[in-house]
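Practice record 12: protein with flavin-adenine dinucleotide.
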Amino acid sequence: MCASLGDALLSRGDFARIVGASHVLAPEEDDGAAHFGHDATVVRGLSGRPGLVVRPCCASEVAAVLALCWERSIPLVPRGGGTGLAGGAVPLGGEVVCSLARLRGIREFEPSLWRIFPEAGVRTRDVQRLARENGLLFPPDPGASGESLIGGNVATNAGGPHAFKYGPVGAFVTGLEAVVAPGEVIALGGAGRRDVAGYDLQSLLVGSEGTLGIITAVRLRLLPAPAAASALLSFFPSRAAGCAAVLAVLAAGVVPSALDFLDGPSLRFAAAGCPEGPPPAEAEFALLAEVDGTAAEVSSSLAELTAATAAHSIEMRSPSVKELWAWRDTVPGAVASVRGGKLSEDVSVPVERLSEALSGLDEIAARSGLPHCAWGHGADSIVHANLLLDPSAAEERSAAAAAAEEIFALAVSLGGSISGEHGVGLLKGGRLALQWPEAALRLHEEVKRAFDPRGLLNPGKKLAR
Ligand SMILES: Cc1cc2nc3c(=O)[nH]c(=O)nc-3n(C[C@H](O)[C@H](O)[C@H](O)COP(=O)(O)OP(=O)(O)OC[C@H]3O[C@@H](n4cnc5c(N)ncnc54)[C@H](O)[C@@H]3O)c2cc1C
């Protein structure tokens, strides 16, 4: 069910009555609405056009917006910070884009009870900062935390390097407020930590990418901040040695807060900012590890981590935690600048298949004729597989797209998933059928119908097939 551009426009006055005229933007008026036609996938050439952009300021306005869309059969795309890497917030044409960015309140913050209740439009970094300033920790650290919003993080169940020890955003959600069809505000879960009374509707909304409801506020649990943290950067002579080191860390029972990897080509592309100088010339793999806890725990974990990886490694460095992650943040940009663009996927595999996944990626990339590299979260075994391309070359773009299909199939053949982090959105629509049986696909579609029988919530996204 898709409206024409005109359907939303015709209702402009009614949306304005809900949110105020200055909070309704139209693409043809050059008032900033065009910005809402894309998310971070714009670098892959993905962009659409909203019918209208509406910017409600509270849950009741969001509910009124959805109710109006429901009444007029106008599809709606919820939008957070627009940093998504799957095209989930991209309007296909004619939808009302509902920006949650004005829902910026902190409804409750109780540091002594380790919990916070931000509205959906609070920036991820501000949740992290508030926690930190009060001796607490909100561990999820998705890479675009300066721009992404907490509602978007929940809607994508975002991860990041520290998800290995602490879990992704969903692991911190104890309750949600959401607007569901046909325009009602519901509260699920709460400030308490356990609730097993009904079907887990809250978890269905976590990671639902705007297809089941609009998240307006999130109850999050926090943790006391660890007293200390240290980093270890180890280099390995081969991918096999590096992957063996990941398994050795797990077998030793050490729990690093993060254990990311970079393969040889990534190391060479991002060599310039590497802490303590460029990586050793013979390095084909690196592990970026962090441990945290009390000072004593950090020191013993670091010793165990060093012991577990030493046999496989050719060099170890001890940068500060800040230096390590500042360098890691430069990697995607350094890689993209090599040829002007890249196609990056986020498949996951069981950790013991990581080495096979990386070898498989070599073969796929060789067939595509494109240079490639990979990095990711080693212990969670999420592989950011990158094909480097000239974005102006149509044949390279289509070679990369064909390679991506092979990468999905490879991950599934190894017992993994087409997406370990960024979600399905538009870009991976239909690929769930690669990894789920028919009966599960049917349930996926029935869940969508139960929440959204008229298919108006983010249509065309997170499709199973
Ligand atoms: C440089 C960079 C680094 C990144 N690093 C990571 C990373 O480490 N880990 C990771 O997991 N992701 C990462 N991402 C991807 C992205 O930041 C996350 O997916 C993030 O959670 C998206 O949040 P957002 O607010 O920008 O959502 P948007 O991009 O606006 O939306 C994403 C999806 O959620 C839906 N949505 C947004 N808000 C709501 C809401 N309130 N209610 C219902 N649905 C909603 C949208 O419809 C869309 O389908 C990165 C992106 C960039 C650009």
